[in-house]
Amino acid sequence: MTRSSAPGKVYLFGEHAVVYGEPAVPCAIERRAEVEVERREDDKLRVHSEDLTLDGFTVEYGGQSDERPDVDVSESLIAAATGYVDGAIDQVREVTGEESVGFDVTIESEIPLGGGLGSSAAVTVAAIDAATRELGVTLETDELAERAFRTEYEVQEGQASRADTFCVATGGAVRVEGDDCRSIEAPDLPLVIGFDGGAGETGSLVAGVGALRERYDFAADTVEAIGDIVRTGESVLETGDLAELGQLMNVNHGLLSALGVSSRSLDAMVWAARDAGAYGAKLTGAGGGGCIVALDPTEATETALKFTPGCEEAFRAELAEEGVKRLE
Ligand code: PMV
């Protein structure tokens, strides 16, 4: 039996635009997905999870990965999570040459599924890492990130950047531009997360931005403007000026909103954070629902979010210095 965990992440800047070759700066946070694998005698894959969501509904199911539990809103999310595990195990079979190996896989996650905190990347990275080690192979972090990226790329039908998978495999703050992925220095950021209890559909949100960008030059310009924010944000990260970082996050949120990927609840949480005195706030990840991230060293934003209609959960998130963790 082998266990690995990987952290979630927030985007400080650059989601969506990163799909079109602009840079993005995500950073890993101390909310983890843990995956335990055990090699089976046969070639079957059995996936079990009791808590694929942070709170709210809890889903229990076992059996073959193509058996679906009888659940309501979360069914498509569970199917998606199972798809990532299937894809991860395909990568494991390919990289180890053990074409017909089977596994029992158990997932425990503190990361809201599909909420923009990198849940799928964390599950994918941890699953590949644990399953390869179960077969006696330890991948270098770069290879692990690359294999996880290929998994996401296939599951999301070509609409994925390397940002999530590289960030959660490596930990800390990273900069991703195309296939150029590296770690960068970041100050200790006072991150506060607000979660609306829901999730956006990454595929259709990415496709929506793509269609807008094809159709209108101003949408393409907006994507490029997000790239400019990222480049400015990177140099501000070096100075640690929270007020300026917050301001750039606010503008980034406005541009994402212009591209149609915000939502009423995300906007409500962003405004609640700003009203509470946060340096800045923006949606994180694909949008459409899910999470916002704000910068606030005081308790004010967390408290305000807890009283904001549409916000189901608010919490402070520490930067995760370590990416994938090899547990046993
Ligand atoms: O919502 P998440 O955490 O899966 O992030 C999606 C980020 C996008 O830029 C919209 C897509 C991508 O793969 O980079």
Task: Describe the 3D structure.
The protein is built from nine helices and eleven strands. With 328 residues, it is an alpha+beta fold. The chain has two domains: 2-185, Ribosomal Protein S5, domain 2; 191-317, GHMP kinase, C-terminal domain (Alpha-Beta Plaits), CATH 3.30.70. The strands form three sheets. A five-stranded mixed beta sheet has the order 3-4-2-1-11. Strands 8-9-7-10 form a four-stranded antiparallel beta sheet. A two-stranded antiparallel ribbon has the order 5-6. Strand 5 and strand 6 (180-184) form a beta hairpin. The termini are close together. (3R)-3-hydroxy-3-methyl-5-(phosphonooxy)pentanoic acid binds next to helix 4 and helix 5. It catalyses: (R)-mevalonate + ATP = (R)-5-phosphomevalonate + ADP + H(+). InterPro entries: Galactokinase, GHMP_kinase_C_dom, GHMP_kinase_C_sf, GHMP_kinase_N_dom, GHMP_knse_ATP-bd_CS, Mev_gal_kin, Mevalonate_kinase_arc, Ribosomal_Su5_D2-typ_SF. ATP binds at residues 112-122.
Indicate the overall shape. Answer: globular
Number of helices: 9
Strand order of the largest sheet: 3-4-2-1-11
Small molecules in complex: (3R)-3-hydroxy-3-methyl-5-(phosphonooxy)pentanoic acid
Mean pLDDT across all residues, rounded? Answer: 90
Active site: 164 (proton acceptor)
Protein name: Mevalonate kinase
Family: Belongs to the GHMP kinase family. Mevalonate kinase subfamily.
Cofactor: Mg(2+)
